Amino acid sequence: MGLEIERKYLVRDDSWRIGEGRISRQGYIQNEKDGIVRVRIIGNKAVLTIKGGTTGITRLEYEYEIPVDEANEMLEKLCEKPIIEKIRHEVVEAGQKWEIDEFLRQNAGLVIAEIELEREDQEFAEPKWLGKEVSKDIRYLNAKLVKEPYSQWGKFE
User: Fold this and answer.
1) What is the model's pTM?
2) How far apart are CA 147 and CA 157, in angstroms?
3) Which tens digit of pLDDT belongs to each residue from 62-121?
4) 9 and 134 in contact (C-beta within 8 Å)?
């Protein structure tokens, strides 16, 4: 069984920044509270991901590599719009890998750091650039940003 245990944080500043990230495009074929089906292209790799609903910070997750040309067609013809576009950076701090996403287009200005864990209570060193934890705030889920983009949050409040 595939499990994803992930914590998400806002980012305080740019002191994490080294090198260049990779462009990521992702869209949702199914986008429901109890599960999603997502297509993502990052670099020259494409994956189809199926995720179950979240309990705490854990959920079922299954990923399958698919041909990039088919992923592009799915993004264009099958996925809910807008497509999520971001620059993904991988940063290692204290021996732990962080994925930092700089969102583009409708979600520009949003920067989120994520760490995948082996268990929910796993301890890890918090980098100085780490801001407020948003793991349980559904507004920061990529699947939610499709429906309510960051640039329009003032309109929804």
Assistant:
1) 0.89
2) 14
3) 999 999 999 999 999 999 999 999 999 999 999 999 999 999 999 999 999 999 999 989
4) yes
User: Each residue of 122-135: b (16+ CB within 10 Å) or e?
Assistant: eeeeebebbeeebb
Domain ranges of the chain: 3-156
Catalytically annotated residue among 28, 62, 64, 140 = 28
Angular region, 136: left φ>0, alpha ψ -120 to 50, beta rest: alpha
* Highest CATH level, class, for 3-156: mainly beta
Tell me if residue 28 is catalytic. Answer: yes
Element (H, E) at 77: helix 68-77
CB atoms < 10 A from the CB of 115, how many?
20
Helix-, strand-, coil-residue percentages of the chain, each rounded to 5 = 20, 45, 35
